[in-house]
């Protein structure tokens, strides 16, 4: 689909399918139907063109290229089901004249109907036979698409059960396209629609649980528009300025869009729209999808544009202006950079100020459909790696115009997905409301010492989320004054570890299973006084055994005498308790578990002082079974220079009090089989779980030598696993330097430190 079609899509101007089927098509010769289909296609009426091409084929089945042309036109109007039907018979003609990659387009249509496994098979089949000069480019595209299929096949795992989705009532949604919702006050919604044949902004008011008033064109727009199509706008924080898009066709089928501003006069009336300066609306470019926020004394405008200097397609940009200046004089636009923009298209930005998060849609990343909604924390030029927001906000279709509004109890998005019984076709976009059931719990309180008034000073508080008995560190704060605040999730188990000088460590659990939506509670923690330890009796020291032989006894030093590694940490004979997590024995036991996982029997033995897995002769001599080709790690970031000697990057996926291998099995599947888990014990008995390349580097360092490879793997982990807070750490001569980062700019640090 060409970029103009993406602009048409975002303005609701893609023509709906002509309401006939092939059996009722005009009774004309196949040649005349073909000629008329070509004319319709040239005019941009792809729905009617598809119908005429398909009808011509029914008369002349010896011309399968007619079926191919019908399938391509159906795909352009996002009639995925009919595209699959037409392209299925020509999908193998990838290297024939008059066909442009029909197998690839067939696979795309399958994916957007939600047939993910069939789509994966079709993508791989296309790659096996395609001989075109752009094979490398197609390999990269298909890698992304297959990863999207893999992502979608795990839909249940990625579905947020707290989010409900509802199709808005008929007074808003129609058989045409509705898009660009703008929540305004508690029960008023502005939105755009093509119901009149051109795109306009309308207003509706909620009148009941599922009902809205009839749409109306707001008086502030009446008779003031320069161009026939206008839509997708954003009000300033004070409601006195409105930024929006006006578009017109400058050539046959070629759309050009610009951003305009309307300002409210002192008497409450609205001035006529004014186009922003030509350094915002760059000549011979498209500038659209404005979203504006206020920060301190600045107004920041985010927008989409295909102007020169971008990463490819439509990119997201920003410009700012001083609010003291009464005129809309913005700074020169700046590209949001590679953490946001790709070689594809990025559109419909929305910035959620409370969480410092940018939401946008893109077709240039791993997606379940065409355009998926992504999010990234940051602002202006500092952003973290963008993450797919998952299901049910995303679907097999196109999902865009995401916006949050607390007054509307959730937010809105736009999608062409089917939604029985209200929406049965994918050829038009509708507006959906999403509600998020109370999934947040706010906890605050003081940390005090026994017998001491007021909060303690210099307190360390660690917060762990307990998942299936596994305690994963999600926050580690050093408080100058012992007062804390946490934004927690409902229906979760947590563990607090609190320490201060002069007091023993305090461990306290907390369950949010029975908390109410958005409930706020206070809980104070009191650290007990340190107890005076009794003087231990002096007993003769027992012979010392090396820590490694406590884990695996020394006598197990032959393949014929392997040792079955137990599931539990060895007992300390002097205490009768398992070795502590900060002990050398515990650390060695964790490493031994990783070796044992390589054995089908879980057995290990010493070989030349190295612990190795037991492999039976059958296992050792068995050739691995052939498996279907899987997509590797998508290279979202272009190669960066290799780090200097002794410097490497490691990906931290978790920090745990006790490592349990089964919790990390998903990090040893698919493309991640090319990497290994690493472990780094730190203070407090906590172990960092890391992702590393299989081999050490030539300079002896452990980790990725280029930042780009680390970020590409990180992006895959964030989208394909439950480890949504993973990040990259920099290591110099084996020591962690800095707090870590999730983008190309190391100095930006972790915007979301939890």
From TrEMBL:
Signal sequence bounds: 1-22
Source species, domain of life: Bacteria
Keywords: Signal
InterPro entries in alphabetical order: TPR-like_helical_dom_sf (IPR011990), WD40 (IPR011659)
Pfam families linked to this entry: PD40 (PF07676)
SUPFAM superfamilies per the UniProt record, alphabetical: DPP6 N-terminal domain-like, TPR-like
Protein name: Outer membrane peptidoglycan-associated protein
Species for this entry: Saprospira grandis (strain Lewin)
